[in-house]
Amino acid sequence: MRKPRVVTVLPLTASAAALALAFVTGSARAQRPGEHIGHYVPPRTWPNPPHAFDLLHQRIAVQFDMAHRSVAGEVTTRVAITQEATDTVRLDAEHLTIEEATQDGRRLRFTADTAHVTVRLPRRAAVGDTVEFTLRYHGTPERGIYFVPRERVIWSQGEATETRAWVPTYDAPDDKTTWDIFVTADTGLKVLSNGRLVDVTPAGGGGAQRVWHWAQELPASTYLMSVVVGPFTVLKDQWRGVPVDYWVYPDTVQAAWRTFGETPSMIELYSRLLVPFPWAKYDQSAIPDFTYGGMENVSATTQTDLALHAAGDEPEANGRGLVAHELAHQWFGDLVTTADWADAWLNEGMATYMESVEAEKTRGRDAAELEWIQQQEQAEAADLRQERPLVWGRYQGSDPIVLFFSGHIYPKGAQRAHQLRRLLGDSLFWAGLRRYLTDNAYKPATTADFADAFEKTCNCDLGWFFDQWAYGIGYPKVHWSRQWSPALKTLTLTVEQTQKVDS
User: Fold this and answer.
1) 319: burial class by Cβ within 10 Å (0-12, 13-18, 19+)?
2) Residue 225 near residue 167, CB atoms below 8 Å
3) What SS3 class is residue 235?
């Protein structure tokens, strides 16, 4: 236990309204001797599945059956062997029936269970070799793809480990890839996916169906793959020539403009503070029965249609915060992605903080201060439920999605960003974020990478900060008392730090 801190308020005078404060303070750091953030190994990790390859590209062709809630598809996967020579490649494939595996038209042997498919290559591949094979499959996904028959809508949700339920892939955030998606859908429906719309062509059979081809040409993690199908109206907008479109139901057009219409100005703000918007376009869809508020699929955010609101519901109801949050993920989460779910605050905490920054820049400091206070209260409440570090690993056998419901990584992560901003000042803080995003663009990153970018920017040691606030547990708890001396006109405050202090 540290000694109590004493604060003495000097005597008041009739002519002076200001108070002079004298503090007796000590270091608040909880630093391990000789330890540096870049070499610190968190006590728990969330290990990604082992794989001896780099996922280079996937060509995915799928067709969904609304009536049977099923998928039939074909995926061609190209990988580079990275770890050691091998004659097998294993992909995640959850409850999918693999019909066949082929390479250059020749059948390959494979084994499959309810979680994976392992393809046996015709010959052993050496490190550096590129291997390509095709899987044909079908299934009735229990998650990953969701059907809303009453609205003729189909939507996907990949985070954290659901993409594997509708396409065989490597389903962890640490390996980024590019992909092409071909979706066959009825002519009356539209299909939204990641990246650039290449073309829409007839599928044959009398024009009853069309094939939508989308190309994600810059690497991203596979949990960010997205498919949304429905009878949408597409509202056209843009930012500096970059398409910014809103995919909504025809009877919600006015509400959609009301909800999404400030998106280009938000892109301008984030591009000025951070780095320029990094994707070919930015689409937002409003869909029924979505299980979350929004999901930051790369260049194609999915949002609940509950975010749409009538003019009379403002200002109490508006989707501005949700729009700002999901947009911020295009930098924090999509451009740079947590390498391990244990570091998920790099995605969610930073997006939450940028949401409050958008409020600060557009609605004033008071609006942002209110959000920062709320974040602090939420972070403290989360610690009351369960004290754990911001960087946190797994319980054996648990799904990483549990991290997102703990209450830690959103508000607590945002508070760590705000602390760092106050510590370094605006100039170094924004420069540090730009360096982090530039150094790790289109790559996975860890808290150590985040810290390294700031240390290089400020030319200072921040190991103590991240050791205490990212890897340490809890927050300062204090007990205080006061004593007023009428004769001396002196107020003495005694402040005692009461929580356990790491040594």
Assistant:
1) buried
2) yes
3) strand
Distance CA 137, CA 212 (A): 20
Predicted local distance difference test score (pLDDT) of residue 312: 81
SS (H, E, C) 119-148: EEEEEEECCCCEEEEEEEEEECCCCCEEEE
Supply the pLDDT for residue 206.
75
Query: Any idea where the domains of the chain sit in the sequence?
Result: 5-28+476-497, 49-231, 233-309, 339-469
CA separation for the pair 98, 168 (Å, rounded): 9
Q: How far apart are alpha carbons 249 and 492 in whole angstroms?
A: 63
Q: How far is CA 372 from the centre of its chain?
A: 20
State the greatest distance between any 2 C-alpha atoms of the chain, in Å, as a whole number: 97
Q: How far apart are CA 339 and CA 337, in angstroms?
A: 6
CA distance 44 to 393: 5
CATH number for the segment(s) 233-309:
3.30.2010.30
Instruction: Tell me the pLDDT tens digit for each residue of 132-153.
Output: 999 999 999 999 999 999 999 9
Q: Is the omega angle on the peptide bond into residue 280 within 30 degrees of 0, that is, cis? A: no
Tokens of 247: 């995919």
CATH class of the domain comprising 49-231: mainly beta
Q: Is 376 exposed, middle or buried (0-12, 13-18, 19+ CB in 10 A)?
A: middle
Site of tokens 């020539």: 241
Q: Does position 67 have pLDDT exceeding 80, yes or no?
A: yes
**pLDDT for 462:** 96
For domain 339-469, give the fold.
Answer: Neutral Protease; domain 2 (1.10.390)
The secondary structure element, H or E, covering residue 414 is helix 411-424
What radius of gyration do the chain's Cα atoms show?
26
Whether 54 shows a pLDDT value over 70: the answer reads yes
Question: Which residues, other chains included, contact 89 with Cβ-Cβ below 8 Å and sequence gap of 6+?
Answer: 53, 77, 79, 118, 119, 121, 131, 133
Name, in order, each residue with C-beta under 8 angstroms of 204's C-beta and a sequence gap of 6 or more. none
> In angstroms, what CA-CA distances link 330 with 277, 282, 288?
8, 9, 23
Asked whether the CA dihedral 89, 443, 48, 39 is positive or negative, the reply is positive
